[in-house]
Amino acid sequence: MLAGIALPVICAQAQVEQTESEYELEGLEVIGTRVPLSPQHSVRMVQVLTRQQIAATAAQSVNDLLKLVAGVDVRQRGAYGVQTDIGVNGGTSDQLTVLLNGVNISNSHTGHLTMDLPVSVDDIERIEVLEGGASRVYGSSAFSGAINIVTRHSQDDNLGVSLSGGSFGTAAAGAHLNLGNRQVFNRFSGGYARSDGGSDNSDFNKGNFFMNGGYNSSDVDIKWQAGVSTMNYGANTFYSAAYNNQYEDNRRYMAAISAETKGRVHLMPSLYWNRSLDHYLLFRDNPSAYENFHQLNVYGANLNAYVDWSLGKTAFGAEVRSEGILSNNLGKPMEESEYVKVPGHPSHYTNSDNRTNISYFLEHDLLWDNVTVSLGLLANMNSALDYRFRLYPGVDISWRPAGGWKLYASFNQALRMPTFTDLYYKSPTINGNVGLKPEKSTDYTVGAQYSSPAFQAKVKAFYRRGTDMIDWVKFNAEDSYHSANFNLNNYGVELSSTVNFQEMWGANSFLKQLNVSYAYIYQSRRDDKTIYRSNYALDYLKNKLVVSLNHRVAGKLEAQWDVRVQHRNGSFELYTAGKPSGTLTPYGTVGLLDLKLQWVEKTYSLYVQGNNLTNHKYYDLGNVQQPGFWFMAGVKKMFAL
């Protein structure tokens, strides 16, 4: 599990969800170490979006929720979590590790597909965002950060349903069923959404099913999960702005089981499997003209263990992760006798590749009354390199002087293997590079936090020295995009504060909570390669300001206002009627305002919301204009069983 600092949030929990068993928020602790530590001894700064915050926002997907974290860059081609890239601290979507209940579900085919999730917003208990390199904790793929999505469960039997609809022919329905007691619990959930899309060729339909459960005893705790997601969508300019009628048909399957023994020595074995099926069409109305089929299979097994003793806590363990791809484009050509039929299609996979990643780790945590020191080391070997183990150390320190203050410092190193798309993809407009080197980074972070019941504030600064960083670039205006290595440094500062008005003025206060956060990032290259433009790495969010206010309106009617102001570095080549203009258009600065109004009763809630109330048109990605004002309304109902 991820770990970190839970911000105490007094934003009211929707009463419609209170029939489910809730834990005490003050008891929640998420910590960026291999072993669980008490809130007093936490050593990493982690942003946490709680269930209360999630219920209050106008978010329709996990991606929408992450827009409210200042250090997270969300670049989307469509709504409802469709076609979204997530980056942290100026990193790209390929440099982020995403976990579902602590299980790594990152996609080594391409980071574009990592956020295709089998869970909905209503399934989520909290989201934990760890910014900065964390290879010694979450493996080599945790290059620029990690996001852990923790789902809900209950010891009560209940049923929940939801319906919503709004602009651009958008409609969605969902349901969940909780069955359980104090020893065994299961939650089943599913949903479907469709829309005509708010911009050209951005229509979609998507479905998801997710099951998670567990068994608790005095000797061992066991947890399991399985999920399926489907996404079909118009992929406007997905791989090239020269073609605006592209299409994607994606399927994803995942399953995992883990356990933890009780006693002085804790053993934590786990097994997991992820599969993604991707069907890409360059022309959605003429599939045979150009189409790609990809199947990625990931198998993982790990054994973690930790022990408490007189000198602190010591953790050790190992993980094996196998990543294999079948494709008609990615990988090495197979013999015709080895071709594999594409499920549901007459075509065959003609190429393949596979790599195995083996990791061993060791960590020791020194615990004193006001100081914690966490020392860790990851030994990693990848079969796609030279079968040689490489070492990635890390040190995290926290100091807790009196008065609610906590100071942090950390040093961590990380490595990321290129995705299969980085290595192999070939098309008329982009060219992969089988000679790519793995990315390497060294991260330094310092920060401070102040906490009291009514007010919390945090500040941090980071420096990442990146070597052989990967990006897709053009070297001139007439060039195609190439995947290439370059050296890049990232510098950043992030500030955040929370005011809990109900702590100051009582539970009946008109104002409930105010959150303000700001992130600034600056990048500098350390090489002399001249490029015409970058497609990902250099188009980072240089400035991002987020302000969220929650307050009562009348009776049980509440309002949540979310304001985002962001300035994106870089530019894109504007295309007109599929033809390049030859000029670069800066992304510039954009301000966005969202509002959600909801009426909450014990067993049901009603809400209306508007995203982008000012109807501002802007670009997250080149040549994909984001939709303007988007209205939604919905109802949620709970039934006790």
Describe this structure in words.
The structure is a single chain. The longest helix has 6 residues, at 51-56. Mean pLDDT is 89; it is low at 1-29. The two termini are 31 Å apart. The chain is globular, with a radius of gyration of 24 Å. The chain has a 22-stranded antiparallel β-barrel. A five-stranded mixed β-sheet has the order 1-6-7-4-5. Strands 2-3 form a two-stranded antiparallel ribbon. The protein contains five helices and 36 strands. It has 641 residues and is mainly beta. A hairpin with a 3-residue loop joins strand 13 and strand 14.
Name its key features.
641 residues; 5-stranded mixed β-sheet; single chain; globular; 22-stranded antiparallel β-barrel; 5 helices; mainly beta
TL;DR of this structure?
This protein has 641 residues and is mainly beta.
Which helices and strands occur, and which strands form pairs?
Blueprint: E1 46-49, H1 51-56, H2 62-66, E2 72-76, E3 84-88, E4 96-100, E5 103-104, E6 124-131, H3 135-138, E7 145-151, E8 158-166, E9 170-180, E10 184-195, E11 204-216, E12 220-234, E13 247-261, E14 265-281, E15 291-309, E16 312-327, E17 332-333, E18 340-341, E19 348-349, E20 351-367, E21 371-382, E22 390-399, E23 405-416, H4 420-424, E24 430-431, E25 439-451, E26 455-474, E27 481-500, H5 501-505, E28 511-525, E29 533-534, E30 541-554, E31 557-576, E32 579-600, E33 604-611, E34 619-621, E35 624-625, E36 630-640
